[in-house]
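Dear Dr. H.,

I hope your travels went smoothly. While you were away I took the liberty of generating a structure for the chain from your last submission, since the lab meeting agenda had it listed for discussion. I wanted you to have the full record in hand beforehand rather than looking at slides cold. The sequence, exactly as received, is reproduced here:
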Amino acid sequence: MVGCFLPTALRFFKGYRYGFNGQEKSNEVKGEGNSYTAEYWEYDPRMGRRWNVDPKPEVSVSSYATFLNGPILWIDPLGDKVKLRRENGVTKEEFKQMKNGIGELRRNSSSFAKIYNDLDGRKETYYYTATNEDGGKTPEGGNEIRIGVHYKINTLANGEEPKKYAILGLIAHETGHKIRELYNLDPPFGTLNSNVFSQKDYSAWNDYNVSHQRRHETSELGALFIENVVRSELKKSSYSDIQLRRYYSPGFKLEIKYDPKKGLQKSSVIGSDYDLFKKYDPKYFQKNIDLYEVLGIGSR
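The corresponding predicted structure, in token form, is as follows:
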């Protein structure tokens, strides 16, 4: 039977809180080693069944099953369907920091919990990946949210902050990008007609450049807004010293040139930082904000 403990083993591991698959034992429920607690479920390892119905069941698998009925092959550290991954080079401790950060955000920010549950309730499976990259990345059209575990921002309203808060903000920011993408909240990419290359008037090129720059600014300020809503909720919870983030750095300008041999050549030029406080007074975030209502997307 999955997760069973032999009586002789109990004598040696009496003080150890964790067991099969790294889950925490809840011995007070059914006795030693007979019940486990993950972040969002309780399950009986003797039967390999959860107490609550899986909110996103798999075809041909019971809604009460755990680990897709394959506990040796599969893990589910939180007891839900948004998955966590660790790239090569990321230590177990760094991965744990990301994992714990997601859990803390879900518990202490109603807005983040709502977005997370939105992703979790979709047919697709979404992944948070711990990476060695400097910062985060949310590839458009994909199902991945990449979190650079070495990230430390210095664009707050009041300077730098501890790495833990930087990671929490980064998770909120990149998750914000994904939900904005899914609800089409960012302007569309500009397009260039092929005839523009035969024209002497390059105003169309300039319009194209401007549209890309505006899209980038709108997207980053939009994600920064979501991040600050989450930060404000953390501040009202148990993170009294966390600060709002003011700037997205760096902004950029897109330059386009046309080479008859190489075709369209794009390059980004560093521009001034985007300042969220030009649009939202910091006092705005002291309110109780219904994020989905403010974004105009309603709730799923």
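Two observations you may find useful: Residues 131 and 225 are 24 Å apart (CA to CA). The helical segments are 7-12, 27-30, 92-108, 110-120, 163-182, 203-236, 291-295.

With kind regards,
E. W.
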